[in-house]
Amino acid sequence: MNIKGFIFILTALVLVSTKTPGQTLNFDFGSRNYGWHAVNNCEIEENDSYLQINIKGNDPQCMSPGNLKIDASAYKKIKIKLSNHTSPVLDIFWASRDDPRIRPEACQRSILSSDSCDENHTSLAQNQFIEYTIDLSNHKEWKGSIYKLRIDPGDGPDPKNMKDGKILKEEYLLIEYIKFVP
């Protein structure tokens, strides 16, 4: 890990661990990635205003740093503002301090609004950002101290956008922020 990555992770841990219940917990991705990293078939690109996840194959995944210390009883919703340029599926996985593994049971699948997308699931306006609220208050696995998150943007490239195993037009997801709210 380079020094820049270490500083991002350290900053994220300090910011996350100093929040108290009732406050909004944020990952505002303007000019920093807080230690989020690519895990499978995607690349993370830092920009001035958002985190860009470039889709490189099936089942793309990116992960937060560990040790987030999100109190699931205090933070029951996730607000995520994004611009979708891939399939309309967004899976959010999490691991708790009690069970630090990413498991299918600890996942919330969201279907992103089709009102803002054309038939190819691409935002109609270039880089149009929409805020989505994901309510986890009734999810049986959203409990304890949340250790880390994984975001799976889409199910992979659109088959119509593939030729000879290569992606013809780049598919990506832009995330302006992720907020944890009561």
Could you characterize the architecture of this molecule?
The protein is mainly beta and 182 residues long. It has a single domain (3-181), classed as Jelly Rolls. 8% of the residues lie in helices and 41% in strands. The chain contains 1 helix and 14 strands, in the order H-E-E-E-E-E-E-E-E-E-E-E-E-E-E. It has one helix at 3-17; strands at 25-28, 37-40, 42-46, 51-55, 61-63, 70-71, 77-85, 89-96, 107-111, 130-135, 145-153, 162-163, 166-167, 172-181. Strands 1, 3, 4, 7, 10 and 14 form a 6-stranded antiparallel sheet that branches. A hairpin with a 4-residue loop joins strand 3 (42-46) and strand 4. The termini are far apart. The model is unreliable at 4-24 (pLDDT under 50).
Q: Span between N and C termini?
A: 34 Å
CATH superfamily: Galactose-binding domain-like
CATH architecture name = Sandwich
- Ranges where pLDDT stays below 50 over 5 or more residues in a row are 4-24
Largest sheet properties: 6 strands, antiparallel
Strand residue percentage:
35-45%
Helical percentage: under 10%
Which CATH class applies here? Mainly Beta
**So what's the overall shape?**
globular
Gyration radius from CA atoms, angstroms = 16 Å
- Number of spatially distinct domains: 1
Q: How many strand segments?
A: 14
| Structural class label | mainly beta
CATH fold topology:
Jelly Rolls
> For the residues shown, what is the average pLDDT?
80
Count of runs of 4 or more consecutive helical residues:
1
What series of H and E elements makes up the topology? HEEEEEEEEEEEEEE
In short:
The chain has one helix and 14 strands; from the N terminus they run H-E-E-E-E-E-E-E-E-E-E-E-E-E-E. It is mostly beta strands and 182 residues long.
